[in-house]
Design brief:
By secondary structure, the chain is α+β, with helices and mostly antiparallel strands. It is built from 30 helices and 21 strands. It has a four-stranded antiparallel sheet, covered by helices on one side. Helix 2 crosses helix 10, helix 8 packs across helix 10 and helix 12 runs parallel beside helix 14. The radius of gyration is 37 Å and the shape is elongated.
Length: 791
């Protein structure tokens, strides 16, 4: 049967389902491609191959019976030879009596027409071996020379295997992984195994004494029917992890290696579709033989992933839903397009992200991912570690912003990397892969948290930073990242509001007007990360000489960390400058501790109050803050629109005067920490500032003293605190030291102006004659509260 018979064979195309083959087994995936390659190349050039789930489907003018007949009687096998392997030169050293020499003698003496190309190839190899005197295992320059000779002398039918198994450059020989190191994997010679199985299928050898029946038709049944058939003893090599044998391995309880000869032979034909190209795909300096869809392995996103487990890379097998001809598959495989950021994917992380960013051919619906992992002695096995659909996920493009920093972090090998950096680096690689595979607010948050953790670990090792030439992670674009990260949670909102703030520092000779003392942190980022802005340009970061100003983010409770920031702010903030003509003058001394410039991102009062009451997920809030501090804070002048028009917090607006919320202490103090002009009732306006002594007192647990100060402050603004003196004692009793620190941390959170005005009003009632002078007792109390902190 041949191609010329096809027009008269049958008029309609048939769907031949290769139900016995599964794309999740590398050998069977390749066997499907190999079978189609034989049918399309020798019987029906219009035959197509596609996939329905994990099952290959052949559409051809041949019927199932005709496909079987063609394979059993007419198919001409590819002439695979590797006369550079082994001491007997791949079985071509005729003075030796080895398994290889005996096999090739069978082929030389065969008379079957279908083996004519194989006989011609063997004769060409015999001639080259005799002419150049190859008599041992070739290596180095001698091996490169032999391959060049064979490339120029072998028949065309043998060149596909040469291109698929060996890549020659000007100075080296490299081996794509699908065929091991030039057709062998350790001591396993893939080519001799192929010839041995082929000889068995073609009747050149006696049937084996043990194992499967000798009828090739029985073994062929397993290609078309999922029901298992008897197999022969032998190894499928790296192509079937369940068939390699060994303790607790193999398809039989005795751990013996078994193989279906047809699946092995067809699988070797399938490898020929993935002919290699030199490093033009991966960069001239990559040092990698660029096999299509082959990348550097990443121990991530599968249950058995282990960093200590040696890996030989990954093969991403393309799956397509629409039928492709042999020429189309060759073009698809030959190009091997998996592009990320305008270049061919180099790692598994690049590969998975290319699937989500139109970096692969549109006809591919998904990829089966195989990792070549050493799990059976030193021999690698292709382990199926997942499948990944192609789709357009705009979020995945954000992960590219970290690529350069991650590449720099990976410059230094594990043997010269501190344990802490090594651990966080591995976690970062895993989370980067996960964010690429399933981009979402959760995976992007995990990625940024892992990056922050790796940066923190690196900041503690000056030697590592210098050897890797590692700088801090430079600020990521808030306008790009925040919308994609926003999961609508209370914790995200609080972290975003805290991160975005930045104190206004006027330039030049107006710098003295800043409320922040010179040299002090002006953003929460500069307090909590081990970085500082350079003098040349603010948005460029360098390592801080002594680590973070306030240490412990990601390692201590978030309430304690923010409480320490509030204490730092009490030491580094001036009283606001009162300018002539201010329409709402400051009636007393104090500071504005919150970072400035945040309007649209101010949170509802109920969210800040839940944080103060301990009702937020503290761990999640800490993670969000770690993640968002890698983003760039806003400039105070970046947004002119205030949040006064934002919809009021319904829970806060529903509070009646004198109501007790989730955190009464926070409600009492929050208006004064805001540093804003509030409108508690009607036309009344109050400019709020907080005594600089409050943070130190609250951190020490002096709740009663601070609450008493707050009552006096309300009175001096012309309002009577409804809580009263009796309530002070109750608050002091209810709030322990931990609750006081949590409340102090919550006071740093920027809260909506209207909500704070409502809280101010619900805390007080207007004082009769509100514009009356303060009593002497009030003035004495306020003066004491405003005394500067002494150390």
């Amino acid at each position: 049967m041949n191609q010329h018979d096809s027009p008269s064979r049958i008029h309609d195309h048939n769907r031949v389902v290769l139900a016995g083959l599964d794309a999740a087994v590398l050998g069977e995936y390749l066997a499907a491609i190999g079978l189609h390659r034989l049918v399309a190349g020798q019987a029906d050039s219009e035959a197509t191959l596609s996939w329905r789930g994990s099952t290959p489907v052949l559409v051809t003018g041949l019927s199932l019976a005709q496909v079987r007949e063609f394979l059993l009687d007419d198919a001409q096998p590819a002439p695979l030879v590797a006369p550079w392997n082994g001491k007997d030169v791949g079985g071509f050293h005729t003075t030796e009596n080895t398994r290889g020499t005996r096999l090739w003698e069978l082929f030389r003496n065969s008379t079957q027409d279908r083996l004519a190309a194989y006989r011609a190839t063997i004769l060409a190899v015999d001639h080259a071996v005799g002419r150049y005197g190859w008599a041992h295992n070739l290596a180095g320059d001698e091996k490169a020379f032999a391959i060049r000779v064979l490339r120029n002398t072998l028949p065309d039918a043998a060149l596909d295997f040469l291109d698929a198994s060996v890549v020659i450059s000007d100075d080296s020989v490299r081996y794509p992984p699908l065929l091991g190191t030039g057709g062998n994997i350790g001591r396993l010679d893939l080519v001799l195994n192929y010839a041995e199985h082929l000889a068995l299928l073609l009747g050149l050898t006696d049937p084996p004494k043990r194992g499967a029946p000798p009828d090739p038709a029985i073994w062929l049944d397993e290609v078309f029917d999922p029901a298992p058939q008897p197999r022969v003893k032998g190894t499928p090599g790296q192509y079937d992890g369940a068939g390699v044998g060994g303790t607790n391995l193999g398809r039989r309880s005795d751990g013996r290696a078994l193989v279906n000869p047809w699946v092995y032979v067809l699988g070797m034909h399938g490898t020929l579709a993935f002919a290699s190209a030199m490093s033009r795909r991966q960069g001239a300096d990559s040092g990698i033989a660029s096999a299509p869809f082959y990348v550097i392995g990443v121990a991530a996103d599968y249950a058995s992933a282990a960093e200590s487990e040696p890996g030989k890379g990954e093969f991403w097998a393309p799956i397509w839903d629409q039928g492709l001809t042999a020429a189309e598959i060759s073009a698809l495989a030959g190009e091997g397009r998996m592009e990320w950021r305008g270049r061919q994917a180099r790692t598994g992380t690049d590969a998975v992200r290319s699937l989500k960013a139109f970096g692969v051919d549109r006809g591919i619906s998904r990829f089966e991912r195989f990792g070549f992992i050493e799990r059976n002695g030193q021999a690698p096995v292709a382990v199926h570690v997942g499948n990944y659909a192609t789709s357009d996920e705009p979020r995945v493009r954000l992960t590219a912003h970290l690529d350069r920093w991650v590449d720099t972090l990976n410059r230094v090998g594990d043997d010269r990397t501190p344990a802490g950096v090594r651990t966080t680096r591995r976690r970062l690689i895993r989370t980067l892969f996960a964010a690429g595979a399933r981009p979402s607010p959760e995976t992007l948050r995990a990625l940024l948290v892992a990056a922050a953790s790796a940066e923190r670990a690196a900041s503690r090792s000056t030697g590592f930073r210098e050897s890797a030439s590692l700088s801090p992670i430079q600020p990521l674009n808030s306008h790009e990242w925040l919308p994609e990260l926003d999961d609508g949670s209370v914790e995200f909102g609080i972290a975003a509001a805290l991160m975005l703030g930045r104190d206004s520092v006027p330039p030049g000779d107006r710098a003295h007007l800043s409320e922040t003392i010179e040299g002090a942190p002006t953003t929460l980022r500069d307090c909590l990360r081990a970085t500082q802005p350079t003098l040349e340009k603010y948005e460029r970061l360098e390592w801080a000489r002594n680590g973070p100003t306030v240490p412990g983010l990601g390692e201590r409770p978030i309430g304690d960390v923010l409480a320490d920031v509030m204490v730092l702010r009490s030491h580094t903030r001036h009283d606001p400058i009162v300018r002539p003509g201010d329409d709402v003058p400051l009636p007393f001394r104090g500071i504005r501790p919150q970072f400035g410039g945040v309007w649209h991102w101010r949170v509802p009062a109920s969210h800040a109050e839940e944080f103060a009451a301990g009702r937020c997920d503290q761990s999640l809030l800490s993670e969000w803050l770690e993640a968002l501090l890698l983003l760039s804070p806003l400039h105070p002048w970046a947004t002119k629109d205030r949040d006064d028009q934002s919809e009021p917090d319904r829970r806060t607006a529903a509070m009646e005067p004198g109501s007790i919320g989730a955190s009464p202490l926070w409600r009492m103090l929050a208006p004064w920490a805001s540093g804003l002009v509030l409108r508690p009732t009607g036309a009344s306006r109050v400019a709020t500032v907080m005594p600089s002594t409050w943070p130190t007192r609250l951190r020490a647990g002096s709740v009663a003293d601070v609450t008493a100060d707050a009552i006096n402050r309300y009175a001096m603004s012309g309002h009577i605190a409804i809580l009263g003196r009796s309530g002070v004692s109750a608050l002091a009793t209810a709030a322990d030291a931990k609750a006081a620190r949590l409340t102090l941390g919550a006071l740093l959170v920027p809260t909506r102006v209207d909500d704070l005005s409502h809280i101010f009003g619900s805390n007080t009632m207007p004082m009769v004659g509100a514009d009356a002078d303060l009593t002497a007792r009030d003035k004495q109390t306020q003066a004491a509260a405003d005394e500067p902190v002494t150390q």
